[in-house]
Write a structure and sequence with these properties.
The protein has about 260 residues and is mostly helical. The protein has one domain. The protein contains eleven helices and no strands. Helix 3 packs across helix 6 and helix 8 crosses helix 9. It is globular. The N and C termini lie far apart (about 60 Å).
Length: about 260
């Protein structure tokens, strides 16, 4: 691997720093991230309308949510690069056209779906499920977003925080290389504090959503927030930069012409 893409051990405690930098990026680019959150809210509302009058088994909605989370975080990684450095917005977005980026993203979601199916199969053999009708979903706004948010922790544990930013922003990294580097970064920096933090945020967001559902917007904001958090972790570990770039960089003074020699 090239040296810039070897993970480093960052200064501790890193969770409060990453949290602060994530909030700063949100405040710096409310339009960029607001559009993503609004788009998720529209998807949620559209899914509920499409399912109106149908019995939709919850397990299928959960599987679709598992596939959509990697796609969302892939897009958020590119948008976060532009929020941090506006000069690299199109460079980051153009990475979404690469075949291996989509291959790595969709294969991650598909692998998690298979893992969940196998676990469910094993649990059904040990503890037989009581005969009951199918659990239905998409009867209320916000349920689709919640099905995506339910996969946050397992996705982070499976590929690590830095996987999607590496896949999108790493020059020509294969999905296997990105997964290896992301897991290595988690081992070097201690993965348990990060997973505990993600779990706490997930529980907190779910509690807020239960009190003020806001038609899925709470879960949507939580998903985008954690996507930006992934980017901040990647930037600190792999770009070796623990601060956001300044929003406006002062122009360097123009070089002065050398004085003419008097004759």
């Amino acid at each position: 691997m090239a040296t810039p893409f070897e993970p480093r051990e960052v200064d501790k405690p890193f969770i409060p720093r990453w949290l602060r930098l994530t909030l700063q990026l949100f405040a710096r680019s409310p339009v960029r991230f607001g559009i993503l959150i609004a788009a998720l809210g529209w998807i949620d509302t559209s899914a509920v309308k499409l399912a109106d009058g149908y019995v939709v088994p919850k397990i299928w909605i959960d599987r679709i949510g598992t596939l959509l989370l990697p796609i969302l975080w892939m897009i958020v990684s590119a948008v976060s690069r532009g929020a941090d450095d506006s000069h690299r917005t199109w460079e980051a977005l153009s990475a979404l056209r690469r075949r291996q980026v989509w291959l790595g993203t969709l294969s991650t979601g598909a692998t998690i779906v298979i893992m969940q199916w196998l676990v469910r199969l094993m649990l059904a053999g040990v503890v037989p499920l009581r005969a009951q009708g199918p659990q239905v979903s998409l009867q209320h706004p916000g349920e689709f977003m919640e099905s995506i948010a339910a996969n946050v922790l397992i996705t982070c544990v499976f590929v690590g925080l830095c996987y999607f930013p590496l896949l999108v922003l790493g020059p020509e990294l294969s999905p296997g290389d990105a997964r290896h580097l992301s897991r290595k970064a988690a081992r070097i920096n201690g993965d348990w504090p990060t997973w505990i933090f993600v779990a706490i945020v997930a529980v907190g967001a779910n509690a807020v959503a239960s009190v003020a559902p806001a038609y899925g917007m709470t879960a949507a904001a939580f998903l985008v927030f954690l996507g930006v958090f992934n980017f901040v972790a990647y930037r600190d570990i792999f770009d070796r930069r623990d601060q956001n770039l300044r929003k406006a960089v002062a122009l360097a003074p123009l070089p002065q012409a050398a004085p003419a020699h008097e004759g």
